[in-house]
Design brief:
This protein has 136 residues and is an alpha/beta fold. It has helices at residues 19-39, 82-95, 111-123, and strands spanning 62-66, 72-74, 77-78, 100-105, 128-131. It has a domain at 62-131: Nucleotidyltransferase, domain 5 (2-Layer Sandwich). It is 35% helix and 15% strand.
Length: 136
């Protein structure tokens, strides 16, 4: 077996041939298009009947709200100021270490008021705070 020496004027090919890659991708697309309608077919099964159950919630989250007049309410009871809110939240946290707060805020309330209330909740030691929004 004789090997032919590589000539000096022949350079190594530095470009990637993408034709086989395109061929493989086209085959994969065709397979996807053929198998996709098969996946959507269903099988009729008679499922057993059960009664509806509701999940057991041990502790309801606290409902903290700020209305358009910037009045703060906790569980539909008015709160005088942020200091009394913090003491109430600390007392609740003492009874329930897993206490959570759902925050309802009117869209006209400035953000600095919301930030003050959030900071008060955090200073009380409650780390679970959720904003409640309305779907449009």
């Amino acid at each position: 077996m004789a090997f032919k020496p590589q000539s000096e004027d022949q350079d190594a090919m530095s470009e990637i041939n993408v034709t086989p890659l395109v061929d493989v991708m086209l085959v994969l697309v065709i397979i996807l298009l053929v198998t996709a309608p098969l996946v959507t077919q269903s099988v009729n099964v008679a499922l057993p009947k059960t009664t509806e159950t509701t999940p057991e919630i041990k502790h309801q989250p606290l409902q903290l709200s700020i209305d358009s007049k910037q009045q703060i309410t906790l569980n539909k009871q008015a709160v005088a100021d942020l200091a009394s809110l913090e003491t109430t939240l600390k007392a609740t946290l003492g009874k329930n270490p897993e206490a959570a707060v759902h925050l309802y805020v009117d869209q006209s309330v400035p953000y600095n008021k919301v930030a003050e209330v959030m900071a008060t909740v955090q200073h009380a030691g409650i780390s679970k705070l959720a904003f409640v929004t309305v779907e449009q």
